[in-house]
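Honest question from a wet-lab person: if I give you the sequences of every part of a complex, can you actually get the arrangement of the whole thing, not just the pieces? Trying it with mine:
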Amino acid sequence: MISRNQLKRLHSTIVKPYIYNKGLRSLCSTSIKFHRAQYDTKQEPETHFGFKNVPESMKENLVGQVFENVATKYDVMNDAMSLGVHRLWKDHFIRTMAPGPGTKLLDVAGGTGDIAMGFLNYCKEIHGDASAQVTLLDINPKMLEVGKKRFAKSSYNHTSQATFEIGNAENLSSIPSNSFDVYTIAFGIRNCTHIDRVLREAYRTLKPGGRFMCLEFGKVQNPLISSIYNFYSFQIIPVIGQIIAADRDSYQYLVESIRRFPSQEQFAEMIKDAGFTIVGDGWEDLTFGIVALHSGFKL
Amino acid sequence: MFRASSLSSQIHTRKFLLANLSRNILQSNLHRDNKNSEVIPIRTNYTSSTNSQISNLEKCTLAVSSALTAFCDPGRGDMIATLGETTGSIFINRMRDHMLRDKTGRRILQERPRIHSSTIDIPYLSSLPLGTFGKEYTNFLDGQNVTPDTRVKVQYIYDDELAYVMQRYRECHDFFHALTKLPANVEGELALKWFELAQTGMPMTLLSSIFGPLKLSSKERERLFKKYVPWALQCGSQCKFLLNVYYEEHWNKNIDEMRNELGIYLVD
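Yes, you can. This is the full assembly:
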């Protein structure tokens, strides 16, 4: 089969008349065949996986493998990488949510259950409420296992306040529409292949008046902090990943995926496009923009 | 289609012919060593990591932190492996050159055999008579309840050949145990590390040999330095370079005969 490059070169070279006459018909037929073949084998759309580009269908599997590898050491690594600051972010997240008694939370990509646990603790401590409910949903069975074990060791193991489900954020077929008060996705949405589908499902599953909240890594504006952050991300975090979790590649993916995620402004636009009403900018920068708390209401 | 490709070749005749000519020369180069015209297997059964190279700063950080982690938690074999990869650059080159100087070593570098439960037939080896190399090896594996699949893949060496040398060195570790008849407890492993230090000179072996004994009791340490270390240094420096042995071809060989040939004597 003649290659596209050869074809280009052919067209650009000055061809002698006799070869031109002889070859033209076959050349035409070849080029037509080539074009038809091109439409037949339509190339699969690609998406980003860290700094690499992969076919869309592969991304879910690759991300699944990453989280399978890191599941057992996920919490330890979070503490090590963020020097404990991730707890402050999540605590601020729950306080911003300020759930009232009896709130029903859908925690998507809940994984090891930081937000779900924090939510139940908040309701218990602030309101003395034991009727708050959380559905912890995650696409990765290993991460969900770690979450279940954690809840089994907590004071919620004999209550029915926490339920666990395996599901894909892009297609929450098991969740009925208009059923939850708050939808949260913390540090999960950048791993999804189609962010717009996730947002649409979030909109569908929320009750009218419900709140969508998303905690995600964002872009840092301050140049000094940005350079320190980049250095830390690319030089220190993979080393920590190798030492603690014996898996450098997964943490390399993590820091690269942060860079490929849309900026806070772009993501706020996407949230608006999904139908949510945002207040003010729609997001709040935490720690100089390293993390952003996005929020939208279904009105 | 055929006509179009001959058309392009007519237009680019010179380039085409030249490319073919060099390809032909290369072919003959490949076959030079072989008397029969058997095609040498392509060495794609081992390639180094395709990740982007780590910076020097990261390499230093990794070396120091893996050394500390390995010292605090000796069970982390992958940390020793990382330490070896990040500190070993010159010495792996020397090991590769050592292999190139020997005929069998050259063959190993060319064919790149791997030691994995899928490439070596362990049930067959355990069926061999007692006293053969294969049987001793499987006895060692069963005694320690390990398989040859536990070796970490080389991550931080980006040249195919050097990465293979490191991988082969890692995979042959159990063979060294079988040949020197050292047990796989802490003492035996340290003695073997001294042996490997004498053979390869790698900084990772030096660091393990110096800081490893700190974890032993004083009596064990005394025994190590009185009995094992002199033996390891003497035997390691005088015997044949053990990476130049094609172990997969010697399963049936009597192990004492093999030890004699290689110049290995056992610890008394």
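Two things worth pointing out. Chain B touches chain A at residues 1, 3-5, 7-8, 10-12, 51, 54-55, 57-58, 61-62, 65-66, 69, 76, 78-79, 82, 155 (CB under 8 Å). Residues 22-37 of chain B have pLDDT under 50 and may be disordered.
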